[in-house]
Amino acid sequence: MLSSNKFIQQSLELHLFFARIMKEHSFFLEIGFTPKNSNYIDEADAFRMGFDNLLYDVITMSEGIVSSDVLQSGEVVTPFTLEAEKASAYFTGVKIATDLTKGEAELMSSSFSRHNHEELEKKVFAINKRAMELTRGLIRFKTGLLSEVLSCKIFTVNYPLLIDHILREAKFYFMLVQRLQNCEEIDIEREAYEQETFWNRIMAEHSKFIRGLLDPTEDELINTANNFGHQFDILTRKAKEAMNQSIPISKVTDESLEATKSIRSFKAQGTQGLVECKIKSIIIPLLGDHTLREASHYLRLLKIFRKAED
């Protein structure tokens, strides 16, 4: 049974990361439609603003509660997030709520013993419920969109794999919130198997998206992205083998950690290059920062898993 303290802290930490991810998914979908599909644009925009509102409420609750490990990991905001948002808003005309980024960047961690736990727990439970309702709706939207794209009923500049990719992330977020609502105690061993299988695949796909969105003249970056794609494909297979107990999970964790450090560095350089207009591509700058934060989130988890395995 999850304690009240852990329930509050883990819920808010999860939303600081994933609510931002979901709002950005909605933004990427929104800017990928043609004018013909204005109804899809409006629906994606509504989800984006819904997650904006959720994230705002999470930020107001998180001061002095979330851990310094999360705030300093680079998964909440990065040194590039604000500029990536400004550039992406300029390119698309979509008004991105940069005040949320400033609010997250200013969050401080500390003990929260002074808070009324019972009242705060009720508020967090309500936030979790809202997150699940919003995410359930976004899952339905993404599922329907993927079906329409695969049956050639609609065109979008987003790859079908990208839509499937962000659909899986939404389902994963929903599952994690559901576990918290049920006050399930975290099983580190189970988490390691599930998270490494999930995130290694995500890292592989990020590499392939980057490869495919770079200008054809960016040979070196394309080759690097391609190599990361192959490396994380192999790590995904190894994580699945570990689930079947064919190989020890500790070996996969060590390899995944080193690979994730490398890809995070690659993504950081790439995001900076996009923001500074030094890379030729059709990558919206916020997508670069988005993938960088996901790598940082995964790296923090891997460090937890490795410590638990020692």
Characterization of this structure:
- This protein is mostly helical and 310 residues long.
- 76% of the residues lie in helices and 0% in strands.
- It has 11 helices and no strands.
- It is globular.
* H and E string: HHHHHHHHHHH
- The whole-number mean of residue pLDDT values reads 95
CATH superfamily of the largest domain: Protein of unknown function DUF2935
Detail the poorly predicted runs. Answer: none
Distance between the termini: 25 Å
As a percent range, the share of helical residues equals: over 70%
Structural class: mainly alpha
How many helices? The count is 11
For the biggest sheet, the summary is: none
CATH fold-level name of the largest domain? Ferritin
Query: What fraction of the residues are assigned to beta strands by DSSP?
Result: under 5%
Give the total of domains.
2
Q: What is the name of the CATH class of the largest domain?
A: Mainly Alpha
* Beta strand count: 0
Shape verdict: globular
Rg is 19 Å
The CATH architecture classification of the largest domain is Up-down Bundle
